[in-house]
Amino acid sequence: MTLTVIGNRFNVGQLVITQGACEELPQEEVWHNLVRHMKGDWGELDESDREQNDRAVGNGGRLMSRYSTRSGTVFWIITEHDRSYTTILLPMDY
User: Fold this and answer.
1) What local confidence, expressed as pLDDT, does residue 9 receive?
2) Structural domains in the chain (count)
3) Is 1 within a domain?
Protein backbone atom coordinates (compact mmCIF):
# COMPACT_ATOMS: atom_id res chain seq x y z
CA MET A 1 0.00 0.00 0.00
CA THR A 2 1.22 3.49 -0.81
CA LEU A 3 0.15 6.48 1.25
CA THR A 4 0.62 9.89 -0.31
CA VAL A 5 -0.01 12.93 1.83
CA ILE A 6 -0.22 16.32 0.18
CA GLY A 7 1.75 18.86 2.18
CA ASN A 8 3.87 16.39 4.13
CA ARG A 9 7.10 17.88 5.48
CA PHE A 10 9.30 14.78 5.14
CA ASN A 11 9.33 11.19 3.93
CA VAL A 12 8.54 8.47 6.44
CA GLY A 13 10.22 5.59 4.63
CA GLN A 14 8.99 2.08 5.40
CA LEU A 15 6.13 1.95 7.92
CA VAL A 16 6.46 -0.48 10.83
CA ILE A 17 3.98 -1.10 13.64
CA THR A 18 4.73 -3.19 16.69
CA GLN A 19 2.51 -6.15 17.48
CA GLY A 20 1.24 -4.48 20.65
CA ALA A 21 0.30 -1.29 18.80
CA CYS A 22 -1.33 -3.26 15.99
CA GLU A 23 -3.49 -5.15 18.46
CA GLU A 24 -4.31 -2.20 20.74
CA LEU A 25 -4.79 0.82 18.46
CA PRO A 26 -7.79 1.52 16.24
CA GLN A 27 -6.53 1.56 12.65
CA GLU A 28 -8.36 4.76 11.71
CA GLU A 29 -6.76 6.63 14.61
CA VAL A 30 -3.32 5.36 13.64
CA TRP A 31 -3.74 6.61 10.04
CA HIS A 32 -5.18 9.95 11.17
CA ASN A 33 -2.25 10.59 13.50
CA LEU A 34 0.33 9.35 11.01
CA VAL A 35 -0.88 12.06 8.64
CA ARG A 36 -0.58 14.60 11.48
CA HIS A 37 2.98 13.40 12.11
CA MET A 38 3.87 13.73 8.41
CA LYS A 39 2.56 17.29 8.37
CA GLY A 40 4.62 18.28 11.42
CA ASP A 41 1.81 18.20 13.99
CA TRP A 42 3.75 16.50 16.77
CA GLY A 43 0.74 15.83 18.97
CA GLU A 44 1.13 15.95 22.74
CA LEU A 45 4.74 17.10 23.02
CA ASP A 46 5.93 20.06 25.07
CA GLU A 47 7.21 23.16 23.30
CA SER A 48 10.88 22.21 23.64
CA ASP A 49 10.33 18.81 22.00
CA ARG A 50 8.23 20.43 19.24
CA GLU A 51 11.04 22.86 18.49
CA GLN A 52 13.58 20.02 18.46
CA ASN A 53 11.44 18.14 15.91
CA ASP A 54 11.05 21.26 13.76
CA ARG A 55 14.85 21.64 13.65
CA ALA A 56 15.28 17.91 12.95
CA VAL A 57 13.06 18.15 9.86
CA GLY A 58 15.69 20.39 8.29
CA ASN A 59 18.87 18.83 9.64
CA GLY A 60 17.98 15.14 9.40
CA GLY A 61 17.42 14.34 13.06
CA ARG A 62 15.07 11.75 14.52
CA LEU A 63 11.39 12.78 14.75
CA MET A 64 9.03 11.67 17.50
CA SER A 65 5.34 12.41 18.04
CA ARG A 66 3.06 11.43 20.91
CA TYR A 67 -0.67 10.90 20.50
CA SER A 68 -3.57 9.45 22.47
CA THR A 69 -6.52 7.52 21.14
CA ARG A 70 -10.08 8.54 22.00
CA SER A 71 -10.01 5.88 24.72
CA GLY A 72 -6.81 7.34 26.20
CA THR A 73 -4.17 4.88 24.96
CA VAL A 74 -0.88 6.71 24.39
CA PHE A 75 1.27 5.82 21.39
CA TRP A 76 4.32 7.16 19.66
CA ILE A 77 5.29 7.61 16.03
CA ILE A 78 9.05 7.76 15.46
CA THR A 79 10.75 8.51 12.14
CA GLU A 80 14.45 7.67 12.06
CA HIS A 81 17.06 10.32 11.26
CA ASP A 82 17.73 8.96 7.77
CA ARG A 83 13.97 8.71 7.01
CA SER A 84 14.41 5.02 6.15
CA TYR A 85 11.53 3.93 8.35
CA THR A 86 8.84 5.09 10.75
CA THR A 87 7.67 3.02 13.70
CA ILE A 88 4.29 3.19 15.40
CA LEU A 89 4.51 1.81 18.92
CA LEU A 90 3.17 1.83 22.43
CA PRO A 91 5.46 3.21 25.17
CA MET A 92 5.75 -0.30 26.66
CA ASP A 93 7.08 -1.56 23.28
CA TYR A 94 10.09 0.75 23.46
Assistant:
1) 87
2) 1
3) no
Asked whether residue 4 is assigned to any structural domain, the reply reads: no
Could you give the count of Cα atoms lying within 13 Å of 41 in the half-sphere of its Cβ?
A: 9
pTM over 0.70: yes
Give DSSP secondary structure letters for 27-79.
HHHHHHHHHHHHTT--BS--HHHHHHHHHHHHHT--EEEEEE-TT--EEEEEE
What is the predicted pLDDT for the residue at 81? 96
From CA 74, how far away is CA 40, in angstroms rounded? 18
Q: What is the largest CA-CA distance in the chain?
A: 35
Q: Which helix (H) or strand (E) holds 24?
A: helix 19-24
Residue 18 main-chain phi, psi, to 5 deg: -70, 160
Structural domain of 62 = 14-93
